[in-house]
Amino acid sequence: MLMHVTMVGMQTPMIDYLHFLLDSVGTDAGAVASYIPELAHADPDKLAVAVASPDGVVYVAGDADAEFTIQSISKPFAYALAIADQGLDVVLEHIDVEPSGDAFNEISLDPETGRPRNPMINAGAIASHALVRGEDADARVGRILDLCSRLAGRQLSIAEDVFESELSTADRNMALAYMLRTVGTLHGEPTDIVRGYTRQCSVSVTVRDLARMASVLAAGGRTPDGDQAIAPAINRQVLSVMATCGMYDSAGDWLTSVGIPAKSGVAGGLMGVLPGQVGIAVFSPRLDPHGNSTRGVRMFERMNRDLGLHLMDSTDSTRSVARRWEREGVAVHEVMGDLHFVEAERVLRGFAQDPAGDAPVVVDLDRVHRTNDIARRMLLEGIRRLHLDGHEVRIVDPWGVLGSAETGSGELVRGEPARGGYVPTAFPDIVSALRG
C-alpha cells in the first residue's frame, strides 16, 4: 500500500525542496525521442520529481500524475527476473557485465564469446528478456509486469499505442535479436522476443511509481509491506550493473559526478537508487545526446550537491531510531543514533504530526552523537518551522550535534554529559516531562 505524508502541522521541508528543485533546472535543451512516432508527440515541457523512502513515504512535485512509458528503465527489473529464473551463472553465460562505452542501441558484443556487453544496452536487454521464463511474449511480459506492479504498489498496464508505434520502428532491435541468435547467445524466435521486449518497454508509469520501485531496490529488494520481491543477492547484482552501465556511454561521468545507481528511459524518465536510504525518480521528455533526460540529469546533479547523496559518501543508516510521544501536553521527539539524510527526513515526518499551536515541543538529541551537514540543516529548518507554527521549542543537545547555528526561538538545553543521560542546566519542567 502506497503511503503519503499527512500534514496536520507544518509542511515538511522536503516538499518545499522538491519545488525549489524543479524551479532550479531552468529551460530545457535537447529533443524528445522522435524515432518512436508516439513519443514524438510527448509534451516536452512536462516536469516532475518524486522521492520515496524504504518505508513507503513518497514526496512529489510537478507533473507527478503524468504517465509515460518506462522504456529502458524496465531493463534492471527484467534482468532481476532472468536471474531469479535461470540463476546468475546461466545469465552470465549469455550476458556480460562490462560497461560498453557505447550508445544504448549499438551492436556491442564480446568478440570472443558473442555475449552482449551488459544487460542495460538493448542487445543485453533483449537477451535478458529471452531468459525470463514464459512460453511466449505475452507470458514473459505478464511476469515482468507483475514484478513491476509489486514494486510500484499498484497494478500497472501497457500503453498499447506506444507499443504499436515502437514495434513499427523496431528494425534495429530485430536485427540485434537475429545477430544474437546467429552467435548462439539467443535461444528462441527473434520476432517473438523483440515483440515481448517492446511490450516490456511500453509499461505505463508515473514518477510516483518509479520512485517507489527504486525505494524497493534501496531496501535490498523488500517492499514497504515486507514482501521480499527481489532476493538480496539479485538486488545487489542489479544495483551493481546499474551503477556501472545504467547511463550508457555517460556512465563513468554519472558515477563520479552523481554517484548513485541509475537507469534512464527515452520517454524522459530517470530512476536513481541510494542503497539503504532512498529511491528517486524524475521525468522530463527532452533528451541529451546520450538518450538521457536533460533536466532529469540536472536535477540529480543538484540533489547530489544539496543532499549529499553520492554513493561513496554513504554510511550505514540502519542504526538510527526516531519516535514521537506525548506526556502532560508536551510532544517529545526522541532521536537515537547517527543522523544522515534519510534519518533526518524521518524526524521531520514526526515534526509534521504536531498541529500548529503553542503546545511545547521537545527535540531530544541526547542519544545522537554524530550528524552530517545536510541532516543538521534539515533538523534546524524543521525546528524553525515548529517555531513559526507557534510552538515553544526546547532542544536537548548535550553533545552539541547541532553546533551553534541559529535555531529560531528553540532554546538549547545543553548541560553536562553524565552517566545515563545529562545534567540539565535549564528548563527543569520540560526535562521532568521528558524523563518522567
Spell out the blueprint of helices and strands.
Layout: H1 13-24, E1 48-52, E2 58-62, E3 68-69, H2 75-86, H3 88-94, H4 122-131, H5 137-152, E4 157-158, H6 160-167, H7 171-182, H8 190-200, E5 203-205, H9 207-218, H10 232-245, H11 251-257, E6 262-264, E7 269-274, E8 278-283, H12 294-307, E9 321-327, E10 330-336, H13 341-351, E11 361-367, H14 373-388, E12 393-396, E13 411-413, E14 416-418, E15 421-423, H15 428-435
Parallel strand pairs: 10-11, 11-12, 12-13
Antiparallel strand pairs: 1-2, 1-8, 3-5, 4-5, 6-7, 7-8, 9-10, 14-15
Brief summary:
The chain has 436 residues and is of the alpha+beta class. It is 39% helix and 15% strand. It has two domains: 13-313, 3-Layer(aba) Sandwich (Beta-lactamase), CATH 3.40.710.10; 321-435, STAS domain (Transcription Regulator spoIIAA).
